[in-house]
Amino acid sequence: MSLLYERVAESLRGQIRRGVLRAGERLPSLRRVGRQQQVSLATAVEAYVQLEREGLVEARPRSGYYVRGAAPDLPEPALRRTPRAPCAMRNPALLDVLDVLTRSDLLPLHAATPSLELLPAAGIAAAVARTMRRHRDAALRYAMPQGQPGLRLQIARRYAHCGVDVDPDEIVVTAGAMEAISLALRSVTRSGDVVLLETPTYYGLLQAVAALGLRVVEVPNRPGAGIDVAQLEGLLARHEVRAAVLVPNFNNPVGSLTGDAGKQAIVAACAARCVVLIEDDLYGELAYSGTRPPPLRRFDRQGGVITCGSFSKMLAPGLRVGWAFGSRWTDELLRAKCFSSVATASLPQLAIADYLAHHDVDRPLRRLRRELAANAQRYRDVVARYWPAGTRVSEPVGGMALWLELADGVDAQALFEAALAQGIGTLPGHLFSNRDEYRHHLRLSCGLLWDAKIEQALRAVGALADRLRKEK
Ligand SMILES: Cc1ncc(COP(=O)(O)O)c(C=O)c1O
Description:
Elements: H1 3-17, H2 30-37, H3 41-53, E1 57-60, E2 64-67, E3 87-88, H4 93-101, E4 107-108, H5 121-134, H6 136-140, H7 149-161, E5 171-174, H8 176-188, E6 194-199, H9 203-211, E7 215-222, E8 226-227, H10 229-238, E9 241-246, H11 260-272, E10 276-280, E11 306-310, E12 322-325, H12 330-340, H13 346-358, H14 362-386, E13 392-393, E14 401-405, H15 412-421, E15 424-425, E16 427-428, E17 441-445, H16 452-471
Helix pairs in contact: 1-3, 2-3, 5-13, 7-13, 8-9, 8-12, 10-11, 14-16, 15-16
Bound molecules: pyridoxal-5'-phosphate.
């Protein structure tokens, strides 16, 4: 990859992001950019083509390159709800659609994982082969319950990158973020306890809480704004909450980021009431801005936060390697791990440690973030142009989820089924609620490598939404 063209592209990207170059504005001519940035014409062209691929600019024949306009009339979904008393978990609909997640015959607009083309699959495959050649016996034996030391070191190093000091000895390696969250919940709660979750939130968190017989209160996570801190403080004052499971960095399905001030206030409010904070930091590395937002742990002075994460969205979901850490909770987490799966599989742990030791993972991550950001914009453009007027879409700033509020009360389950009949996977909104809400919302994933087939599928789902709207 030519670094020169990337430097030029990054400078223009920054100007667009900061609003220095505004929607509809003409970009400097290729010759001028070449002169200003002291690069060849070919390099300038390469930079503009890259920005076009990302959906940030468009070429107009015989006129030049222009900053693409924001999608017309595309507000973010509203979230209208009032706080309610804790309630037991219920979401029977979950099981009805979960088999969709594993179907390989669908065009997967539903699967919140990046296409393998966007992940460093070849490097990982080579690391697996190397591990089997060099460390076959260790790869085939049980790993220690806490996890392979070389891998824990690499995880600590990634957090050090974003200014967070983590001791490798406090990390417990898990089978993905999901096991990490389950272990954290098991370590700090007892059946019947009240747990605070966001609404909407990832259905896996709802399942984990349901499996442990916990009750739930919900705090809104608003598109564009993140967790509603004032409501969170109110809920903690009214209810005896034992733990909070939050996704401040790019909540799934909304894609929002809770800012540093909000994070600080959340950590302080939970610490003041002895509420254990469990943060799901799975998407922390996938900020479209390129700047990794801090985890809640950064603001934790008392060692009370448990941070969970995994390599699922940045290396490979199938390896099932994640982590949990929280300095006050290491013994409990380790005990829970021993009772749960004894140890995470050795081969994936060793292979990931090997990969991270020998590769600059920031390179594939930069590309992944860029593609996800470009995809989110492309999806929003297609929805603005081809879906019924009145459809609202979240504007994610990281991760790979888009949250849609369908026009004129179109039923999301009906749309999900109609799309399924055409071989297209989507997820109806009520999966992301404990109370059967979001009947008119849909979650889409923008983790696929963009091509004409995806655009067609998105347009087809929009046409189905329009048909359902007219049939109402
Ligand atoms: C918010 C959130 N947490 C956890 C998970 C599960 O992660 P893992 O595959 O590492 O278990 C997902 C998967 O999509 C998710 O979106």
